What we know:
By secondary structure, the chain is α/β, with parallel strands linked by helices.
Amino acid sequence: MSGPRNLPTGGERAALVEEMFDRIAGRYELLNTVMTGGMHRLWNRRIIKAANIIPGDRVLDLACGTGSLTRDIAARVGESGSVLGVDFSREMLRGAGSRPRPNVEYRRGDATDLRFIEDEAFDAATIAYGARNIPNLDGLFAEMRRVVRPGGRVVCLEIATPENEVSKAFYGLWFDRVVPKIGARISGDAEAYTYLPKSVKEFVAADDLSGIIERNGLQDVTYRRLAGGIITLHRGVRGL
Ligand SMILES: C[S@@+](CC[C@H](N)C(=O)[O-])C[C@H]1O[C@@H](n2cnc3c(N)ncnc32)[C@H](O)[C@@H]1O
């Protein structure tokens, strides 16, 4: 068994992540349901609430993957609203495109470089299970701030290492031992599902993430822990 190794950063990390999601795209939603016990739909609703998304809103969903959150946002904004999903994995986007919605568009792009989007184009921007794959968090949140209008909301949901002992024990068993095995079995890709616990362990602490969001110009930054602390939900607002 190999010892712990740090994940690469910069372009090397981006290439690793893009290739990995291209490989597992076909099984991603099934695995997500198995791994979260179906809870991800509930967490989608929490994101929508935290971002104060209402009918008619224009929303950007970054690292949208196969569009699980994107579709739930689309249902909330209704036909008078719209959602743009952005991801850099062609295969994840192919999965998203196979379940079209009239008020959703998808576009391939890097979440840290959204130059194809005008300033202040959205009422809210979301990212779910994406930030821990992105070493350049300043680039990510600077772009999220830029593309929401004054008063616009930015929300980030991420898997976290829990602090309380019971959740820690559950987490150690589930994400470190069970998920890599189930993931390898269902997706046929052992590497991808050992990457997951590694990427969570290397991700910044919740307070530090708040600091990063704040230093990129967002205000009233708060976060809450969900599911016994294995999920964190951060939100900030672009000042008026
Ligand atoms: C775990 S999936 C999350 C998908 C989706 N948000 C959901 O809720 O199911 C992470 C996604 O982030 C995408 N991703 C990672 N880094 C990215 C980046 N820098 N720019 C765009 N997409 C990125 C991957 O391609 C992958 O589809």
